[in-house]
Amino acid sequence: MDADAVRERAGSLPTEPGVYQFRAGETTLYVGKALDLRDRVRSYADPRSGRIRGMVERADRIEFAVTDTETQALLLEANLIKRLRPRYNVRLKDDKSYPLVAFTDHEVPRIEVTRDPEAGAVAYGPFTDVGRVETVVKAIRDEYRLRGCSDHKYEGRERPCLDYEMGICSAPCTGEIDAEGYAEDVAAARRFFEGETGVLADPLRRRMEAAAEANEFERAANLRDRLEAVEAFHGEGGEAVSDRRDDRVVDVLAAAVEGEDARVARLHSERGQLVDRSRHRLDAAAVTDAGREAGAGDEADADANTPAAVLAAFLAQYYAEREFPDAVLLAERPADSDVVDWLEAEGVAVRVPGAGREAKLVELALKNARKRGGRDDPVGALGDRLGIARPERIEGFDVSHAQGTAVVGSDVCFVDGSAETADYRRKKLTERNDDYANMRELVRWRAERAAAGRDDRPDPDLLLIDGGEGQLGAARDALAETGWDVPVVALAKAEELVVTPTGTRRWDDDAPELHLLQRVRDEAHRFAVSYHQTVRDEVETVLDDVPGVGPETRRRLLRRFGSVENVREASQDDLTDVDGVGDATADTLRERL
Hints:
This is UvrABC system protein C. Keywords: Cytoplasm, DNA damage, DNA excision, DNA repair, Excision nuclease, SOS response. Residues 15-90 form the GIY-YIG domain. By secondary structure, the protein is an alpha+beta fold. The chain folds into 5 domains: 3-88, GIY-YIG endonuclease, CATH 3.40.1440.10; 100-194, no CATH class; 249-285 and 304-370, Nucleotidyltransferase, domain 5 (2-Layer Sandwich), CATH 3.30.420; 378-536, UvrC, RNAse H endonuclease domain (Nucleotidyltransferase, domain 5); 551-592, no CATH class. 45% of the residues lie in helices and 19% in strands. The strands form 4 sheets. Strands 12, 13, 14, 15, 16, 17, 18 and 19 form an 8-stranded mixed β-sheet that branches. Helix 9 runs antiparallel to helix 10 (217-233). The N and C termini lie far apart (75 Å). The model is unreliable at 91-97, 236-242 and 288-303 (pLDDT under 50).
């Protein structure tokens, strides 16, 4: 490559941190890192040494990879140099490289810490602190029970290994977990390495607090140490909406404008935790009037409906009658500088952050501001109708059974109005013909898992129960018993009545918020019925395979004992008490089951 070719290539590169390679055919000649890829590569148009000039002349192209930080670029450069051994790099004499966390390219992936990932593996890193990486991987395996064994140990097993007994593997090798469930666990673990710290930190924190409350102080201390390693793993970039070291009260504001419709989203943070969020509407007249009052004059008329003008109007109106926060983070500078001067004179730090956690908070606020309202936003309309915060996550519950047999429950999830199938769950329930007791058990199961940190999903903003007042009362009893504080309503099928803790309401048939509840309810029902049919077919198949047991005898057995498990554990005398079951059939049942 000559100087002009280098300059031309440099002009197409991003001005971000990353790693670049000078290549000749399939050979890497040189690997370098940069805080600004464009600026650094451009410098090679005028090399400072004959050796580097020779390298540039031999190269036929320049490749690059962008990283989030300069530190990541440094580590990636080091690993590439170790692996590729480019002749123009000065290499360390030892063969040390930084570790990565890899998920292998298998139908049932394993997780491993490695310096040389297998072909096709999804790898995260590199990382400098091996001890911290290993601690985090142990926490991942303890929470999501991913396999860590070699292919040789995995294949051809007839029973689970010691990892299963220790609770750090779900034993997909012997079918203790199905492929779908295991894939969901792998996806959750990968979300952590992609920056979603709460996927692992939140359940760890709940388990630590539960252990402390139970006076299991040694276990709580171990979980605390593990939690500290997890929270420090991603550094500043991993704590997008949470930072316990921040003791300020902060408001984060962003505005969006569509025609005459202006919206401001506000996120409120206290001690590093988001504790409230709200959306506010302004019309063009209100923005213009506020601009005139602030002294913006004719400019307010011309630019009334820009995000900068909307923010200026909102700040003036909102904080005129409210307590000031310690800081206000904005998506852009307000159009009226007097408003900013006023806030700063009151001791409020006003900033437009460019990077880090604060910038991610602003980005989140901007996404909320851009969410449309009214009929185009049934989620927001539902929150307004129920008097709760916008229910981004809704979980729907239903129970299905056949006269008290093959009793199952479904727990489906909708995020921002769309089904989130990866977060669906299902459960076999106690065999009984009692819809209220079954719903109480199902909701209690979900609540207890959340309280104990055994559910990897975020807490929902709303629970929807398929049923009427009785089912809603059962669900509320379960919530009260466990102390899980989540809003809950029910939707009755017959007349499509919305049942809330404060009364029953009939909404307009064409209300978008009603249609959203119906979609969640119907999906919970479909998922429950589908699972019930599967369980029922399994039960029928097991009993039908027993000689001497026909459909009528099977029904009597299930009516008498409730489940196949109870039939299996019944005594000879109890079995022969059932009409149609003699000693020979009882012997066969006990042998086959």
